[in-house]
């Protein structure tokens, strides 16, 4: 996990040009004044531990460039090179330009992932009953490589302050699949075992009333997303998906925020097995299981054509202080996650069989930069997991 020194390195970002001194907020949960000019830059060595990936090393760099009339920033750039002790590589270059083309927001990403142990437990809500918690077993893994890219345009057709947003985009990746002998994947040979390209056209609408995109304390966002993959999109597989998502935030007092997310994702058609765990939308998730869906459960432990999960967080803003003329908020979170899947032609268990994860964590936020550390446990198995990442889970 990050040491205190590394946390301070993350937060100690300097402005390229002077900005006006920030004023103290009237209550701890009020949002800080928006920065109008300058740069926040983050350079961080990735020396940490994640229960899903093992020990992580590498580096990540990012920058937010601010300018008047652009919210929450004018340009956002991130670059990562990451390796883990479980044989995973995850490298990317990301760009985010709010209001880059008039009212349109441009998002770009190039990435490459390589996993010597990519989890696969089979389809359904009660899969792999013989799994005893050893994630390194070849039986529950396969070798995976997937270079890819995506581009997306988002906009507010009725003005910057109107809550309605729409977006269109395209993503493409080439998935290489190498199953281990006697693995679950080799035994089942599901659609997608041949690997190959998957191109997706994406479209969606959002109703966003959050007071702050990076660290909200009130409002919410509802989203409907569609994705289509076929020969016309340079895909080997023909399928479609729909995602419904609700995120809501309530201020319960001067220091407490209740946050709730509900997600339902459904896939139809010739769906390759490596897509069973993915959701659509602006903020994609993996699961069921892992730091983006149900914490405390092994990454992608349950997979299927239909996924549903709920995340409830009680966030506490313990104290705040100014660092380099910008407010830093330090706090914690307690959470309860629930999730389950459904898949055709397999046993999914009774309707009430949902997989829970519970835990708590720490949060440190400076403007658009949020560092989170979570500790979670699965009440079903008693196994414990830890996660370190940038940005709130939702």
Keywords:
Porin, 17-stranded antiparallel sheet, 394 residues, mainly beta, globular, disordered N terminus, 2 helices
Short characterization:
This protein is mainly β. 3% of the residues lie in helices and 53% in strands.
What's the helix and strand layout?
Elements: H1 4-11, E1 38-45, E2 48-50, E3 54-66, E4 75-84, E5 88-101, E6 104-119, E7 141-155, E8 164-179, H2 184-188, E9 196-208, E10 219-229, E11 239-251, E12 256-269, E13 306-323, E14 326-342, E15 355-366, E16 369-377, E17 384-390
Antiparallel strand pairs: 1-3, 2-3, 3-4, 4-5, 5-6, 6-7, 7-8, 8-9, 9-10, 10-11, 11-12, 12-13, 13-14, 14-15, 15-16, 16-17
Question: What class would the helix/strand composition place it in?
Answer: mainly beta
Q: Estimate percent helicity.
A: under 10%
Task: Just give the CATH class.
Answer: Mainly Beta
> What is the CATH-assigned architecture?
Beta Barrel
Q: Quote the average pLDDT.
A: 88
- Radius of gyration using CA atoms only: 21 Å
Report the biggest beta sheet as strand number plus sense, adding barrel if it closes. Answer: 17 strands, antiparallel
Q: Would you count the extended β strands for me?
A: 17
Q: What name does the CATH topology carry? A: Porin
Summed up, the domain count is 1
Oligomer designation: single chain
Tell me the fraction of residues in β-strands, as a range. over 45%
Cα(first) to Cα(last) distance is 21 Å
Query: Mind telling me the CATH superfamily name?
Result: membrane protein fhac: a member of the omp85/tpsb transporter family
Q: How would the global form be characterised?
A: globular
